[in-house]
Amino acid sequence: MRAHFWMQEQRKRFERRNEFSPWTVIASNRKGYLKGKMGASYSQTDLVKAWNGNLRLTFNSLYPLEKSFVKGFKPTVGEDKWSRFLIAYATSHKLPLRDFIQTAYMRIPDEAVDYFQSTAYDYWESLNREMEFVTKDSRKRIRKNEVFTPGLARRIFESERNRKSEFPREMVALDACYHIPLSPEDLAKSIEDDNEITMVLTIEGAHSLGTDRATIAEVSRRVQHIKKEWPTPVFFITFAHHFNNKLCGHAHSIPDKGKALLDQTENLNQGFNDNGRRILREFLGLNKKLEKDENLGYRILIDVKHMSARSRKEYYEEVVIPCIEKGDVIPVIGSHCGYSGISTLEKHIERMPQEVDDFCDDSGLFNCWNINLCDEDIEIIVKTGGLFGLSFDQRILGITDKDKDSKRNGIQLLWENIEGIVRSAYSSQNLTEEEKPNIWKCITIGTDLEGLIDPVSPYPTVLEFEVFAGNLIFEIEQARKSGDKKYLSHLTSLEDVRAAVEDFCFNNAAAFVKKHYPRKSL
Asked: Is the pLDDT of residue 109 over 80?
């Protein structure tokens, strides 16, 4: 995504230099990287870092940037303070301050910001352009990648040769390859091949279909276009995102200080409308009776991250549970989430008005905004053999201002969330004793790296995955030895712990995608 943002409006220029490729590294700001700051000034998981960090299975989200990130908002008379009207005027996309803020914060070129703000910017067109970009070099083995250093001053005063020599794991990939599988058989073969990265395509947000402009009939046709015309399958779609997609309600996701520039109130925390129910079913290949319909193409799974608690509740009650009763088990995915510490979706719905910064559950450990998954979500993930991808965003995981620089901002934070998830399953009254241990097969890495997140400080990029795995082994081993915990009773040795961490880091995700990877119709 970072490379595409930089190059999409200057394609011919990059093609002339043979740099228009997903392999091209946009040179990072190393100070931001070393301090583990928010991932705007540096790349967290470009292909070069992924290759050198031995990442061999990745879920790559195609994401047309939402216009609300770069355009101004309209305050409401009678509801907003006068200062918000002043901020809205000063940061309008029609004035230069907005462009300066966006380029400084998101670290993408002004030409791209101007395009995103223009009437010419179309989500559907952008989605297809990104798909074409990311698939263009699939299965091609490169001898060496290219590097692009943004900014004239940096190109004059920084030596790319020296950077490559000093930081080769960040800058240089040799004899490297990524592979977007065409079929389940192709995927299984690729996963077994350590000489390539298996890249599974997903979509971040149903707004990508152009729901802001297109009729619902056109949106429906676009779902079929993805299934029938795209060269490779899409595995899942994160149905909601940060702003109104006119299909279902999204969860509160922007911190209080971000509200000075961004307004996500429209349709915030609401549920599905009839159009949303239709498009949801069509992604899943279901007709109105919730029966599989071959005319609707292969199944693209639904990721509930960013869905409001109300939307998730409706999805489970209206689609997932009725389908289970019909014998059609649709696995529930939460691709990059934290644990909320809340028992039910109804409690999340009740607490929505209280969601401010540092709003935690009763234990004080977990971020209990309804963007995170609760015990009820975990039950349905286990029941359907789904997948809970653990985010590496420190705010999502429960870091508050008071402990931002504490020792907790590390492996302790990640283990607290993992332990909370497995404890939740083992404590459930709605899961059988046979079902409860399956939670260990339903959890995996779901970092959200490259999503402009503020990562858990010791692990700002995929290059730190090996360190993370070692730290997690130590943390679980200490927990195993420290007391009689039912959810750890199956871990009887250090080797068992290592196997559990290997499952979390790779095997669970690999097994899940092998089981559910779709077969495109010919």
From this structure: no
Nearest residue to 9 (alpha-carbon basis) of 79, 53, 65 = 65
Cα dihedral 32→34→38→42 (10° resolution): 60
Instruction: Give the residue among 194, 60, 213, 75 at the shortest CA–CA distance from 137.
Output: 60
360, 367 Cβ separation under 8 angstroms: yes
- Is the CB of residue 262 less than 8 Å from the CB of residue 254? yes
Reading the block at residue 193, the tokens are: 């091949």
Cα separation, 234 vs 520, whole angstroms: 9
The pLDDT score that the predictor gives to residue 246 is: 98
Using CA atoms, how far apart are residues 364 and 445, in angstroms rounded to an integer?
23
Q: Say if CB 208 and CB 279 are below 8 A apart.
A: no
The two structure tokens encoding residue 391? 């985010």
73: left (phi over 0), alpha (psi -120 to 50) or beta: beta
Find all residues with CB under 8 Å of 212, minimum gap 6, and list them.
67, 123, 246
- Look at 83-97, 157-171, 194-208 and tell me which has the smallest mean pLDDT: 83-97
**Tens of pLDDT, residues 443-490:** 999 999 988 789 999 999 999 999 999 999 999 999 999 988 999 999
Higher pLDDT among residues 258 and 345, named by residue: 345
Report the 3 state secondary structure along 271-325: CECHHHHHHHHHHHCECCCCCECHHHCCCCEEECCCECHHHHHHHHHHHHHHHHH
Is residue 81 within 8 Å of residue 204, measured between CB atoms? no
Burial 346-366 (b: 16+ CB within 10 A, else e): ebbbebbeebeeeeebeeebb
Q: Half-sphere exposure of residue 27, counting CA atoms within 13 Å on the CB side?
A: 18
Residue in this structure with the two tokens 């990130």, named with its chain if needed: 69
| C-alpha distance from residue 97 to each of 41, 93, 110, 261 (Å) | 19, 8, 12, 11
Token pair of 156, please?
A: 């004059």
Residue 90: is its pLDDT beyond 60? Answer: no
Reported as a pLDDT band with limits 50, 70 and 90, residue 87 is: low
Q: How far apart are CA 387 and CA 443, in angstroms?
A: 6
- Asked if residues 247 and 279 have their Cβ atoms less than 8 Å apart, the reply is yes
DSSP lists the bridge partners of residue 303 as: 238, 333
Distance of CA 68 to the CA centre of its chain: 18
